[in-house]
Specification:
Layout: E1 7-11, H1 17-31, E2 39-43, H2 46-57, E3 71-74, H3 75-90, E4 97-98, H4 100-110, H5 113-121, H6 149-164, E5 166-167, H7 172-182, H8 185-193, E6 196-200, H9 207-217, E7 225-230, E8 255-258, E9 260-261, H10 266-272, E10 283-284, E11 300-304, H11 312-323, H12 326-331, E12 334-338, H13 374-385, H14 392-408, H15 421-428, H16 432-448, H17 454-473, H18 480-485, H19 495-498, E13 507-510, E14 517-523, E15 532-538, E16 541-542, E17 544-545, H20 546-549, H21 551-554, H22 570-583, E18 586-595, H23 601-609, E19 613-616, E20 626-627
Parallel strand pairs: 1-7, 1-8, 2-3, 2-6, 4-5, 6-7, 9-10, 11-18, 11-19, 12-14, 12-15, 15-18
Antiparallel strand pairs: 13-14, 16-17, 19-20
Helix pairs in contact: 3-7, 4-6, 13-14, 14-15, 14-17, 16-17
């Protein structure tokens, strides 16, 4: 807490890392005097950024750090706001969308039909159309010889798409680095502006991000004070093909360890510890009483087969109803998570979350989902309404959708708004008629709580969004991508689903007639950083069943004494880290769901000896299930 030197903090799950960081920031805010220098607070994800922002807003003077001259945001938003976007605009380049999926699809459709056909035969996809240099070279297109027509067409598509204003997220580092190469004095300017830098969830930084930040804040003379916070055992955000930090790996030589978890008790700690890549000896000092106040419950394994997979969530619900008081059931946070929550195949049961809950809707499951369509923005608002009495989710999600529509239409809209999307939208609408159209649209959506039919969308909502957009742009909008964004998303959200609250799709309520408990369904990635009262980790499939592959760790056979897991292959390391995150979410009870045929009878005895209760769901009659 008192350190004002460069330091790395290796913090186990539930150790109070974010609380520590926010407390330090609050103290700094009270003592900060400069109006031209500020603190720079960076996070890997939007979820971590929002958590820090919310906590700072609730403490005395903390809100001061959320405004100039300070910066709180993701690494990408920092690179965009201070380097890449100003550099592109200084050259007169348009910025229509900074979105990997949109940019890659744009490039793919710019390719000649013959080139696309050839690439498809080579099992290539739009992801091959990236670049790593300002001349649009680099990336996966280097798999083809520079002299070939295929390479030249791919290069041309990258150049034309970028010149039209479409960029992938990571490509913004290309332009930020080009600015630094041309004007290296910018580095010292940034260091003078931000003499102290805090980086949260640093274990998830890729080599691209780590080397970029190292260059700006550390390399060479007069480095800034830098404090990094993270847990190397929870590095789960590396995308396929991206490597972890090498240039400036975490933790460094000067570090502090926080091995005590105040989230969960020793029972959860004993199950999760072996999965750590370099296991900390977790000390469980919980459970936390932040939500409920009762002792931990026995950690439990649910067994199932093909015929009983749909009985897993009911069995989990029954167990929780039996284990927790009505007050705890009302105040607790109960979840079920899977490593794979979306799939386009239906084999290898259970492959994904949908095999346990057929109504699960992955397209709106994330905390910060990308807007695939305007309808999905509004569906997200409807989902958020279930957790609040306020109508701000409708106003902000509607505004976010319209702003995204404007970007696709060619309007330059900043990505770091500095205020709520609704407030920004109101300030953007200088035309009184358009402003009244926007307020009328919000009124319609608020009155219906974002539930509408196809006809309402076609004759009222979409025309209103188009009219608002045309008022801002100053001319009719003809960009195909913008018009597609306003389409009726038949494949994503059917008409029937649009007329029912989407929150029901990702929440399992039990019993159906008179629910006593609500269980949130999510991917493991989406719950990172959260604390749950109870977490059920569901078996899922990617090349193999995850938990079955991790059985030696659950049985205590791995890692071997005086060893760690760092020598395992890359795929297994990713699997270990992902499920380490999942198994360290709960405060009171950790549950696993696995196929019964994954075990030998003696192995189940070993798990019972390791204080894991076993519930057999293969009996179709709930009241006759084996609980032991």
């Amino acid at each position: 807490m008192r350190s004002f030197e460069t330091l790395d903090v290796e913090a186990c799950p539930g150790s109070g890392k974010t609380t520590l960081l926010v407390a330090k920031l609050a103290i700094l805010a009270n003592r900060w005097k400069s109006r031209r220098q500020g603190t720079c607070i960076l996070s890997h994800t939007n979820a971590a950024r929002l958590e820090i922002g919310d906590r700072l807003s609730s403490v005395s003077a903390g809100h001061l750090l959320l405004r100039h001259p300070h910066f709180v945001g993701t690494i990408h938003s920092f690179a965009n706001e201070y380097l890449a976007v100003p550099w592109l605009r200084s050259q007169g380049r348009p910025i229509k969308a900074i979105d990997t999926e949109i940019a890659l699809n744009d490039r793919w459709h710019r390719l000649p039909w013959g080139t696309r056909r050839y690439l498809e035969k080579q099992h290539a996809s739009p992801s091959s159309l990236t670049f790593t240099q300002p001349d649009y070279t680099g990336g996966d297109k280097n798999a083809y010889a520079v002299t070939t027509d295929t390479y030249q067409q791919m290069l041309k598509a990258c150049r034309q798409s970028a010149e039209a204003g479409y960029y992938c997220f990571d490509e913004m580092f290309v332009w930020a680095s080009e600015l630094l190469d041309r004007f290296p004095d910018v580095i010292q300017t940034l260091r003078e502006r931000f003499p102290i830098v805090f980086i949260d969830e640093v274990q998830d930084n890729s080599e691209l991000q780590a080397s970029f930040l190292y260059r700006i804040f550390v390399e060479g003379d007069r480095p800034v004070v830098r404090q990094r916070f993270g847990d190397s055992n929870q590095a789960i955000y590396h995308r396929s093909g991206a490597s972890g930090a090498v240039t400036d790996s975490f933790p460094g030589s000067r570090k502090a360890d926080l091995p005590n978890s105040f989230r969960f008790g020793q029972g959860v700690a004993d199950i999760a510890t072996p999965l750590g890549i370099r296991p900390q000896t977790l000390v469980g000092l919980g459970p936390t009483t932040s939500r409920i106040n009762q002792p931990s419950c026995p950690n439990t394994l649910f067994l199932f087969d093909d015929a009983s997979v749909l009985g897993v969530l009911p069995a989990y619900a029954e167990y929780l109803i039996d284990a927790f008081s009505p007050e705890s059931l009302a105040n607790g946070d109960f979840t079920a998570v899977a490593g794979v929550h979306k799939a386009d195949r239906n084999d290898h049961l259970p492959r994904f979350m949908g095999h346990y809950a057929p109504d699960y809707a992955p397209e709106i499951a994330g905390r910060e989902p990308k807007p695939v369509s305007m309808m999905q923005c509004l569906a997200r608002a409807r989902l958020e309404l279930a957790g609040t009495r306020n109508i701000h989710p409708i106003a902000n999600r509607c505004a976010e959708g319209i702003l995204f529509f404007l970007r696709l239409a060619g309007k330059e809209v900043p990505f770091a708004l500095g205020k709520s999307a609704n407030r920004f939208m109101l300030e953007l609408l200088s035309d009184e008629k358009a402003r009244q159209q926007y307020l009328a649209l919000l009124g319609r959506l608020i009155e219906s709580r974002c539930q509408f039919s196809r006809d309402e969308w076609k004759f009222h909502i979409r025309p209103a969004v188009e009219a608002i957009g045309e008022s801002v742009v100053g001319q009719p909008i003809k960009e195909q991508k913008a018009l597609e964004f306003l389409g009726w998303a038949e494949g994503d959200l059917t008409e029937a689903a649009q007329c029912a609250p989407r929150s029901q799709a990702n929440t399992f309520r039990y019993p159906i007639d008179e629910p006593k408990i609500s269980i949130r369904l999510a991917s493991i990635h989406s719950v990172k950083g959260e604390t749950h009262t109870a977490t059920l980790v569901l078996e899922s499939y990617h090349k193999t069943h995850h938990l079955k592959k991790l059985l030696p760790w659950l049985l205590g056979k791995k890692p071997r004494r005086d060893s760690d897991n760092s020598g395992e292959d890359a795929a297994l390391l990713d699997r270990l880290k992902l499920h380490y995150v999942a198994m360290t979410r709960p405060s009171h009870v950790l549950c696993l769901a696995m196929r019964k045929d994954a075990f030998k009878p003696a192995e189940l005895d070993v798990l019972r000896a390791r204080n894991l209760r076993v519930i057999d769901c293969t009996d179709s009659a709930p009241s006759n299930r084996t609980w032991r």
